[in-house]
Fold this protein.
Amino acid sequence: MSWRAWCALGLAGLLAGCGQKPAPQGVTGNPVRGRLALTQYACHACHQIPGITGSAVHVGPPLEGFAKRRVIARNLPNTPANLARWIREPQKIDPHTAMPALGVSEEDAKDMVAYLLTLD
Ligand code: HEC
């Protein structure tokens, strides 16, 4: 796991440097709350997510490396807004996707995005 993910978890809060790096442009959510929200909505029932304990599931792709990815869901540019849109309404982006809409609130989606974008 990257140092930024550790920072997001608050585990490395004592380390100098944590929290000094600005969040990626467009990220307004709270990564600590986002990590919690990812478990509350049971995203890890289908996805392996770095920093979140779960069984080795592969229904959906592992949610990793978002800090460096250019596209998500095959053809969507990886921006915070697109990621949040996908999390809330995947069918509006790809009507055939197997990813269900889980009724994620706008606030929770922003927090999840803030966490996912710490993963590199
Ligand atoms: C029922 C299983 C299931 C659940 C629950 C689920 N997903 Fe997914 N997810 C999928 C599948 C399947 C895909 C691949 C979809 C596709 O490419 O059409 C996917 C794709 C994604 C992607 C794009 C991944 C990539 O590599 O581009 C993201 C981001 C994502 N899911 C986030 C979430 C979040 C956040 C939650 C919780 C709110 C969640 N998922 C819950 C099945 C699920």
Q: What stands out?
A: Residues 12-16 have pLDDT under 50 and may be disordered. The CA atoms of residues 75 and 117 lie 18 Å apart. Helices lie at 3-9, 31-40, 80-88, 90-93, 106-116.
